[in-house]
Amino acid sequence: MPKFPCPKIHRQNLTLNRSKVKIVLSLIIIFGFIPLINACGTRRFPLKTKLSIPAHHIEVGMVLMEKGKLDDAEREFRMALEERPTAVKAYIGLALVSAKKGDKKMAWEYLKMAQDLIRDDEDKLSVFVGKIRLSDLLYSSEIFPIAKDAFNEVMVIRPGYAPACFYMAKVYEHAFMFKEAKSLLNGVLKSKNSFILQAYNELDKLEKIQKAQPITLLGKEIGLKDRVTRAEMAALLTHELKLSQILEVIQAPRIILKDIGNQRFKEEIRSIVPLKIKGLSATADGYFDPDRIITRACFCQIAQSVLVKLTDIQFDFKKLRSPYKDLKAKQPYYNACMLCLIKGIITSGGKDKFEPLMPISGADILLGLKRLREEARLR
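Predicted structure:
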């Protein structure tokens, strides 16, 4: 069999090839990292993208505002104005943020700026809806005609416009014109729009308030709230149940409350604290914490305490098995929650959850107080 000689690899050629490879790799690495170095360097101006347009900033600002991130929302609206100083919706966004922050003067000033920049019907719609929304956020009887006039203007330009109908319904709610509010909300449900779920929730709330039949206008006012504070709860017990007139005040050293000086319901708080209601008492050093939100569990503890004081009957459901996985017998509010569930003072938060630490709405509290009044046989 013939033998073929193997080719000889010269060391000099190998060394030369390795040198070429190293040079090529070095060039690739250097030129490959140049873009990265530029990207990591500081820029004098922000990077402009397709998203750096006023419409995007306004949309993001509205989302942030609805989430309660008011400072972030304000930043987005101002960025929109930097891109386009005539952006009507950006000024409306700033007006709404100012209203949510409690600055009424600036809210109306920003809306006036938006009104001065109107160019077409779309801008008119935005400004008129903005007026209605400000009337909702800053409601008073003097503002109601402003909202009504703006709503009428919208109906001329675009009849049945869902945003205007929804927010005008909320203004009607503030005026306790529930029939008119429900009519507008039902109209929102009949068309395809982004307000359908909100309109359904508002209708549900109004149905609960009407079913609860509050005996005072204050009851209706607090019933419209999604969250209720301890101060507002004290006001409801005082005016809806007349509790301070029914229950005998326990003789005890008078506590000077230190954190209710600027409270609207400070007198109601002073009348409720001596009753020693669990969940609405003050600390030994005189703090009531009036702005703390009432949770579902806290409301149950308040209802149980009131029911025991009115009927002199003790209730023990600790041995009763809970139907909810988030309500356990070892929890301090378990007995109160089970009592309220059995008596119909509160309903479950979901199919398999009670959600004890979630805020309770004013409408649900009114329904609970009505059932409590029936259970204690109060007129």
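Summary: The CA atoms of residues 247 and 264 lie 23 Å apart.
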